[in-house]
Amino acid sequence: MPSRPAALFDVDRTLLRTDSATLYLRQQRARGEAGVRDVMRVAFWLLEYTLGVVDAPAVARRVLGRYAGRSEAELAASFEEWFPRYALPELSSRGREVVGSHLARGDLVALLSGAPRYALLPLARELGIEHVIATEVETDRGRLTGRVLGLCYGAAKVEFAARLLGAHGSSFAATTFYSDSITDRPMFERVACPVAVNPDLRLRRLARQRGWPVEHW
What we know:
Blueprint: E1 4-9, H1 11-15, H2 20-30, H3 36-51, H4 56-65, H5 72-87, H6 93-104, E2 108-116, H7 117-127, E3 131-140, E4 143-150, H8 155-167, E5 170-179, H9 185-188, E6 193-197, H10 201-210, E7 214-215
Parallel strand pairs: 1-2, 1-5, 2-3, 5-6, 6-7
Antiparallel strand pairs: 3-4
Helix pairs in contact: 2-5, 5-7
């Protein structure tokens, strides 16, 4: 039996025109929960991410450490409030169209991102996407511990994606993957149809070498 076609979408700088971390920081600043130092720190991490040299586990530990003891329900609610004001205006219209075309064909569609699940669920609902593959965080009696259970980043994305595909009768040989970042090279090299969207310089160069489609959303 042939595998079910699948489409996996990165979020930051792919479906969204910028980074969800930057957008969430805007809400935090508006609430007085973040200052100039936080803005500079996030900007530095995003530069490292763009260059493909960020120490993602260290960044995740530092960011989540700040949320240790915080109510999971309150954090989820803050992202629900954040999404329509800060993230939705940055949603790519072309990205929405591409997601819609895959859903209309009956493909297995999922968001695949290193962001925490709380940040992705409102976007998934907006686009009609059932499945979300995200960084999972540890909780204890409804509160965050500040620890990461599974960081959905780099080569680990392949493992996360494989579990979803296998559970729904699909495979990498039937998968299209959309992303902007060289950090997703392991996924690009695994799927049948890699599509570089708004690619960073290193990914653009690699896409040209490999003959992968390049799109600008």
